[in-house]
Amino acid sequence: MFIAVTPFAAAVQAQPAPTYAELQPILQSRCVMCHTGASAPRGLQLDSLAGLLKGSSSGPVAKAGDAAGSELIRRLKGQSQPRMPMTGPPWLSDAEVALFERWIAGGMPPGGAASAGASAPAPSPAAAPRPKAGEAPTWAHVAPIFATRCAKCHSPQGLMGPAPEGYLLNSYEGALSAGDRVRIVPGQPLASEVVRRIRGHARPRMPFDGPPYLGDADITLISDWIAAGARNGSGQPAPVPAGARIRLRGVLSADGTLDGLVIPSGGRRDKMPYPGDGVELRGVVLPDGQIAAERVRRR
């Protein structure tokens, strides 16, 4: 059988296989912020050659000589979901993906003094990007937090199987989806269920594997991101999900707020709550981003 090979493919095949040492800077800058330590999603640690070769709880992610059949390549290309890195777009460039493909096809050579059992020490994991002074947070700033602490469950097939309540936090579209109800209301962090969960105002507190829960800096960053319009990776604010339903739970404060959220007037009132009582607020999002109450009750 004759198989046509394009000039580009022939050129790629003719190049010598790169070594792990050449891949490490890409892994360090785009993958290690999540895939390191005991909390690495599915146990896949990408901060060393040994971790990459060990693979995840589902098995090897790279098969020497079989780039097309390696889950690592399928994730980088988006052939398997969620596509990686979780902070994309932007994803890895075609040239960067091709580097991984050639490494696998060439037998996954370690390079330098590294070996499968004891790879050269990797530099400290790159910190998740933080907005500069005066810069509005975007999805690129908060995605690493969701990827590290939330997406292990809130993905199509997470640690608990299908995502709880079908809510996905492995993509911008999933986080902003309305579905049965909206969990993020752009411009309204206190009216966003995600914020109330990570702060512990609503139960169960999230992330579900806490404590430790998110630190104050991460909670503030997520709150600021929502307050600034829940912007996508390009910095564009999310549209107001007018008509979307909400369900908020918390404790009635002495000042009559729901953990700081002014309870909208109107709607049905059941079992009139007193300060200190648990309260559930159900309503809809108005075109201006405000909340219209449909029902407020003691729980």
What does this structure look like?
- Keywords: Heme, Iron, Metal-binding.
- It comes from Leptothrix cholodnii (strain ATCC 51168 / LMG 8142 / SP-6) (Leptothrix discophora (strain SP-6)).
- This is Cytochrome c domain-containing protein.
- InterPro entries: Cyt_c-like_dom, Cyt_c-like_dom_sf, Cyt_c_Planctomycete-type.
- Residues 111-135 are annotated as: Disordered.
- It is elongated and about 70 Å long.
- Helix 6 crosses helix 9 (216-227).
- The protein has two domains: 7-105, no CATH class; 139-298, no CATH class.
- Strands 1-3-4-2 form a four-stranded mixed beta sheet, with no helix packed on it.
- It has helices spanning 7-14, 20-30, 49-54, 71-77, 94-105, 139-149, 172-176, 193-199, 216-227, and strands spanning 245-251, 268-270, 278-285, 291-298.
- It starts with 6 loop residues before the first helix and ends with a strand.
- It has 299 residues and is an alpha+beta fold.
- The model is unreliable at 1-12 and 113-126 (pLDDT under 50).
- The longest helix is centred in the first third of the chain and has 12 residues, at 94-105.
- A hairpin with a 5-residue loop joins strand 3 (278-285) and strand 4 (291-298).
